[in-house]
């Protein structure tokens, strides 16, 4: 299996200290940061946008930033996010009419392309776009909030992708922690987003290390 990377989601961190919290996650072993962007329209919640990401980038120069764009018009934020220093722009395909031109736009802006699927979106919806993407994100909760229950029934989507695309980066997001990461890794996911399981832990470093050990043993 591919080596797994652990990307903590900062959504449920103390956002008044976004930089401190983010740096701590990186110091504690995070491989990258998963930054959840919500517009109150595609999902029933608001979070952060490109001005905040840019401030974070000014303080954290080298870490890999992925933005998970839970927004109705992902085409609008490509340039602002690239300017803010985002490395990977992961957008949901559900609200997008022309996915391929948007993939091109993201790459032309200098970012990697992630394509995200809500739980209700079947794998057939993304097949035709996989060659234009660097990563596919299979949501394992309904996007919008941290701390929800992991949906194991999404694993066949991960399995299908891994079977057909052995070298593809496949990410899971939602309810992933020590009890659920094994299912994800066995299905073939190699990028693991984990929010509350890490953020709420007393010992973040130990939890990140255990997550890694669990999938590497
Ligand atoms: C949910 C977000 C997730 C969330 C994960 O809409 O996309 O990234 O913060 O949090 P947990 O791991 O607590 O489900
Ligand atoms: Zn997310």
TrEMBL record:
Its cofactor is Mn(2+); Zn(2+); Co(2+); Fe(2+). A divalent metal cation binds at residues 34, 36, 68, 173. Substrate binds at residues 9, 68, 144-147, 175, 195-196. Pathway: Carbohydrate degradation; pentose phosphate pathway; D-xylulose 5-phosphate from D-ribulose 5-phosphate (non-oxidative stage): step 1/1. It catalyses: D-ribulose 5-phosphate = D-xylulose 5-phosphate. GO terms for biological process: carbohydrate metabolic process; pentose-phosphate shunt, non-oxidative branch. Its EC number is 5.1.3.1. InterPro entries: Aldolase_TIM (IPR013785), Ribul_P_3_epim (IPR026019), Ribul_P_3_epim-like (IPR000056), RibuloseP-bd_barrel (IPR011060). Binds 1 divalent metal cation per subunit. It is an enzyme of class 5 (isomerase). Pfam families: Ribul_P_3_epim (PF00834). One of its GO terms (molecular function) is metal ion binding. The keyword Manganese applies. PANTHER family: RIBULOSE-5-PHOSPHATE-3-EPIMERASE. This is Ribulose-phosphate 3-epimerase. It comes from Tribolium castaneum.
